[in-house]
Write a structure and sequence with these properties.
The two termini are 22 Å apart. The chain is globular. It is mostly helical.
């Protein structure tokens, strides 16, 4: 797409870019969410304790926070396209290496490497959007890769046991390696001749600008959305067991995760109208907190309905927040702002559910873990009211 060749129609340029963004988005979650499905087989083979089994998911989530700033540094040095390709390779190789792990220590180390790769992917995608898309397509681009991410949650959690594992003689090791192979092809596809617009003339800064109020405020709100999703996912089984409703777990998890896919589909249709609207962020945050309150005080099928509704609104809230950095910052600063948001957000997405678990252990009531997440959400709700979402992209 260089030289004097005629420019193809806008749709012809847009669809390949959106397809690549969607495919990359898949691998923001597939490597993480296959672990819970395979956890019983891994635990039996390597004699993992309950804590180590939980760490298969918790360690990558923690790495999403730790690895965000290295990702921002790589973007400033090598650009978002090269960083995204390298991050996909790191995530794929780390995920595949889990299948070769001979002991728990190696398994956790390779899980951390995989999490580092995914953490570097997260700021790369927002930083890439202004280079690949026109300003009026930025919200759509964000919605597309977030749809890929949430579809990856459902695919990784839902297809691993019934579809992928039987193809490989029910080997959890080969299954992990097989899930990693497509990421290598996606990394290669990133080097198709896609025209980039308005590359920065100077190397952008990479450290988060902690003086920018959006760095902390969006991060705190991301922490609320992430802790609700990861926390309810983590404690749902224990909560249903405590209520004598463990037989509902499969059904509840299905609807809980499919609701995130539904949220991403809604955002695909509404992204240009909804992204950047503070009132929608406030509404979705308030509804998410109301619905987690419903999970706490109800039981039976009504609790399943509240869990599904909470997942849906938290999913929309997540996309509304993640789509903001390319809209609210100059092109070179989009990755920097996103890295700061993810550092704060995923630290809290790990810490708040962990604190909830400690409280629940102390009291003997799983509901108290959800109360901690609800309490955190209520504490940060005023931030949503005071967000300044006026566009600041005049420096492109």
């Amino acid at each position: 797409m260089t030289g004097n060749s005629p420019q193809p129609p806008a749709t012809s340029r847009l669809l390949p870019v959106l397809a690549l963004l969607w495919l990359a988005g898949l691998y923001l979650r597939i490597p993480i969410l296959v672990a819970p499905a395979l956890a019983p087989f891994i635990a039996d083979d390597l004699a993992l304790s309950q804590a180590l089994t939980g760490a298969l998911t918790a360690v990558p989530v923690l790495m999403l926070a730790i690895g965000a700033m290295p990702g921002s540094l790589a973007i400033s040095r090598f650009g978002p396209r090269h960083t995204l390709a390298a991050a996909l390779l790191i995530a794929a190789l780390g995920s595949a290496a889990r299948g070769l792990a001979p002991d728990p220590a190696t398994l956790l180390m390779t899980s951390a490497v995989m999490g580092l790769g995914i953490a570097m992917m997260q700021p790369s995608l927002p930083a890439l959007l202004p280079r690949w898309l026109e300003p009026h397509h930025l919200a759509l681009g964000s919605a597309v890769y977030m749809n890929g991410m949430l579809m990856g949650e459902f695919i990784g959690a839902g297809l691993t046991l019934p579809v992928i594992m039987p193809l490989f003689d029910n080997s959890w090791r080969v299954t992990l390696m097989a899930w990693s192979v497509p990421a290598l092809f996606i990394a290669g596809l990133l080097y198709l001749p896609i025209r980039e617009r308005n590359r920065p003339l100077t190397r952008p800064a990479w450290l988060p600008d902690w003086k920018n109020p959006l760095t902390l405020r969006l991060g705190l709100l991301l922490g609320a959305s992430g802790s609700l999703f990861f926390g309810v996912n983590a404690y749902l089984g224990s909560l249903l067991d405590q209520r004598g409703e463990l037989e509902r777990l499969d059904t509840t998890l299905f609807w809980f995760n499919i609701a995130q896919v539904a949220a991403s589909l809604v955002m695909l249709a509404m992204a240009r109208r909804w992204v950047g609207r503070k009132n929608l962020i406030v509404v979705m945050a308030a509804l998410s907190l109301a619905f987690i309150g419903g999970i706490i005080i109800t039981g039976g099928w009504l609790s399943v309905v509240f869990a599904t509704a909470m997942s849906f609104t938290a999913g929309i809230l997540l996309i509304l927040l993640v789509a903001l950095p390319p809209l609210l910052s100059s092109q070179g600063d989009a990755g920097r702002l996103a890295a700061g948001n993810f550092t704060v957000g995923y630290t809290l997405s790990f810490a708040v559910p962990m604190l909830g678990g400690l409280v629940a252990d102390a009291t003997g009531d799983t509901r108290h873990a959800l109360v901690v997440m609800l309490g955190y959400g209520l504490l940060v709700m005023p931030i949503a009211w005071t967000l300044d979402l006026r566009e600041r992209r005049q420096k492109n």
